[in-house]
Amino acid sequence: MASISDVARLAGVSITTASRVLNPVAGYPIAAKTRQRVLAAAETLQYSPSAIARALVTRRSRIVGALVGDIVDPYFAETVRGVEDVARRTGYMVVVCNTDRDPATERRYVSALRDYRADAVLFLGGQFASGEAAEEMERELVLAQRQGTVLMGLLGDRGHLPRVDVDHRAGARQMVEHLVGLGHRRIGFVAGPATITTARERLAGFRDGMAAAGLEPALIGDGDFTYEGGASAAARLIEREPTALFTANDEMALGAMSAARALGRSVPEQLSVVGFGDTHRARQATPALTTVSIPRHEIGARAMEMVVAALGPHKTPVASLTIPFTLTIRDSAAHPPGG
I need a labelling partner for 104 at 20 to 30 A (CA). Which of 42, 133, 209, 279 fits? Predict the structure, then answer.
């Protein structure tokens, strides 16, 4: 394998000059003929520069870490794709890290990405660390920022970090308004994990919508953002005879529809079920799921665009950005029985 010294020898220049041509650094002009000789020599020798060596010269690894709470959750796939689409065309590599929503695992990934001098770390999903774990994470983030790493939160609150997201509370409130408009009064809610900020925001939005309609939010079950957790919580709530179930994400809504069928309730004729997120599985469900639609690809793409701008020559600071959501009405919600 050819080295940069081989390229320099063939081009008749110093190793420093060859390095400045192959790893451009601002402030070092190179004559056009010299540049052409070096590039021709590199092509002849099929020279491929070391990413590690380039990072030492430019102080940029061109690595972006994307930390995901659960890598198999379809909720995050479109967001990562948005990040990747922009990263690919701008010369960055995305490393996806599955944290299992475990604060210690998340912190270890941040530390590892710091060791690799990642240019940016994107946190997908709401914050779930608290107490001592949150303090330990904060120390990691301070160290990352000191070495120039751009930090952002996507689809969830991350404390003081800039956030690209929708208004989860307003989305949940509007979904309740939709169900009330259909005539529902006994509306159950399957909440997400209380440790996750987005779950708390959606629960607050459910309570807001019920209060605005003069209804008591008495039918609330605990879920965990999984299909199985949604089915289990929904089965318990169905025993209390709601006419509609609103779940804090789409996976739990699909579980709720399964539980309804197992208990002999047809959706939406006897029980309306709605979700939050608008994943592919929600669109393909039978019946197709009414849900709060989040433009996750756009969120990922816009976040990565801000990362690129922050790392570019103008060093544009990243800032929080709220993306509009939409209420997507499909077939899983209808008027209550007899209504």
Answer: 279
